[in-house]
Write a structure and sequence with these properties.
Elements (H helix, E strand, L loop, with lengths): L1 H18 L2 H7 L2 H10 L2 H15 L18 H8 L5 H8 L3 H6 L2 E6 L2 E9 L2 E7 L5 E9 L5 E3 L1 E6 L5 E8 L2 E2 L1 E6 L5 E8 L2 E9 L5 E8 L2 E8 L2 E9 L2 E2 L1 E7 L2 E9 L2 E2 L1 E7 L2 E9 L2 E9 L5 E8 L2 E2 L1 E7 L2 E9 L2 E8 L5 E6 L2 E2 L1 E6 L5 E8 L2 E9 L5 E8 L2 E8 L2 E9 L2 E6 L10 E5 L1
Antiparallel strand pairs: 1-2, 2-3, 3-4, 4-5, 4-6, 6-7, 7-8, 7-9, 9-10, 10-11, 11-12, 12-13, 13-14, 14-15, 14-16, 16-17, 17-18, 17-19, 19-20, 20-21, 21-22, 22-23, 22-24, 24-25, 25-26, 26-27, 27-28, 27-29, 29-30, 30-31, 31-32, 32-33, 33-34, 34-35, 35-36
Helix pairs in contact: 3-4
């Protein structure tokens, strides 16, 4: 009962003190504090403020002989404790700029998200120390900066970025707003992901990019406007290229399992120079480029490094004689004119064949020769279509027969020593023969068969 009476007296005295003290009235009815209480649904925070004030009044070394008229008359530790419950960016920073006293007391600028402080900026010795946090209050980024005459942020010194688990993600160094010195990125297993050296904001020397297991992925050598980029796969070189102003420049080399497979020449982003392709046995293909177009010789070889094809390009089109080889012997020759086959197409072998082309269409005779290089037959084509003329030759290359086809009819001429012996006709299902071709009128025809 006495305890209850004591509590009642204390509560009465406490209420009396509150009612006669404007400063505490402002604390208790402060909208920011009420908002904190509402957001957190925790009356203990308001009670904590009341208890702090109660402790002040009962502290012999405090303000018991003074009349506290304003919140700023409270001791700084108590004010700091009260202010720590402000979890709204505007409330906190508006209080900070209320007057010189609060500006001095709240020397740290804060930014909140969902009642959690996600950024703190502290001014010290003419520079700002900036800290950003994850929502779990784990440090995210820490750096230093100062403001120039235009109030632009100028980073200076070390900047550290962290993973959400607290491990270091990146370390950078700045000098007067520009990267200067070593910069390192890390995987979450603490292995270096990338490192590069800067001088006055420009990458210098070798930039190294690793895989998560620590093996090298890229090496990029920086030399002002040039970058030499080397890509590795399973610790073996995959490609080695040169970049100038973000364009391929120079010989770009490509590898397979550490073996050179291709050299592609560039000049300011355009194919220019001698292109080379390699197989396991060595060089197989050569092209000549000028300003991104094939111009000049091209060569293909086989696994024995013998010639397969030899030709020429002009303005990205085959032009001139193309020679093909089989077993180190010439097997075909083709004449090209601006990408089209024009002239003779010859196939060499036991039976040589000659084709006449115009604008890549068969136009003229196909000639086939025997192993002794004597003519065997000739077939005429017009625009890739059979032109109804077919000629055969004897073993010594002299004309033997000549065939002329006309729909369902035909004419066959027989020669001997280049002299005509007879002509056989099939006309309207009837067969006629003309001997020696001495008479060309109708009476010279001898009907030999009727269908």
């Amino acid at each position: 009962m006495n305890i209850q009476n004591n509590n009642t007296i204390n509560n009465y005295n406490y209420s009396q003190r509150i009612s006669h003290n404007p400063s505490l009235q402002r604390i208790i009815h402060n909208p920011s504090l009420q908002r904190i209480s509402h957001n957190h649904s925790n009356q203990n925070r308001i009670n904590l403020i009341r208890n702090n004030y109660y402790n002040i009044l009962n502290n012999k070394t405090s303000y018991e002989n003074k009349q506290t008229k304003n919140i700023i008359d409270l001791p700084k530790p108590i004010l700091t404790n009260i202010i720590s419950y402000l979890t709204n960016t505007n409330d906190y920073n508006n209080l900070r700029i209320t007057n010189k006293f609060f500006y001095s007391l709240l020397d740290v600028i804060k930014k909140f998200n969902n009642n959690i402080c996600i950024q703190e900026i502290e001014y010290n010795d003419y520079k700002y120390n900036n800290k950003c946090f994850y929502l779990n209050r784990q440090l995210k980024i820490e750096n230093n900066y100062f403001l120039n005459m235009s109030n632009k942020i100028i980073k200076h010194g070390r900047e550290t970025q962290y993973f959400i688990n607290g491990k270091i993600k990146r370390i950078s160094n700045f000098k007067n707003g520009r990267k200067d010195g070593l910069e390192q990125f890390f995987f979450d297993n603490k292995i270096v992901f990338k490192q590069v050296y800067y001088k006055n904001g420009v990458k210098k020397e070798n930039e190294i990019i690793n895989n998560k297991n620590g093996s090298c992925n890229f090496i990029i050598s920086h030399n002002y406007i040039y970058q030499n980029i080397k890509k590795f796969k399973k610790n073996e070189l995959s490609f080695d290229i040169i970049v100038k102003n973000n364009n391929f420049h120079g010989d770009c080399k490509y590898y397979s399992y550490g073996t050179l497979r291709k050299i592609t020449p560039f000049y300011n982003g355009l194919l220019h120079g001698i292109y080379k392709n390699y197989e396991l046995h060595g060089l197989t293909t050569i092209f000549t480029y000028e300003n991104n177009k094939k111009n000049g010789i091209f060569v293909k070889t086989n696994y024995l490094n013998d010639f397969k094809i030899f030709g020429n390009f002009e303005n990205d089109k085959l032009h001139g004689l193309v020679i093909m080889f089989t077993n180190n012997r010439m097997s075909k020759t083709i004449n090209f004119d601006e990408g089209n086959i024009n002239g003779k197409y010859i196939e060499y072998g036991e039976n040589k064949k000659e084709y006449e082309f115009k604008d890549s269409f068969l136009n003229g005779y196909i000639n086939e020769y025997s192993y002794s290089n004597s003519l065997k037959y000739k077939i005429k084509y017009i625009n890739d279509n059979f032109a109804n003329i077919f000629k055969t030759y004897n073993i010594i290359g002299k004309l033997d027969k000549e065939y002329l086809f006309m729909d369902d009819d035909y004419v066959v001429k027989k020669y001997e020593d280049n002299n005509l012996l007879y002509t056989l006709y099939k006309i309207n299902n009837s067969y006629f023969i003309v001997l020696n071709n001495s008479v060309s009128n109708e009476s010279s025809k001898i009907k030999i068969y009727d269908l």
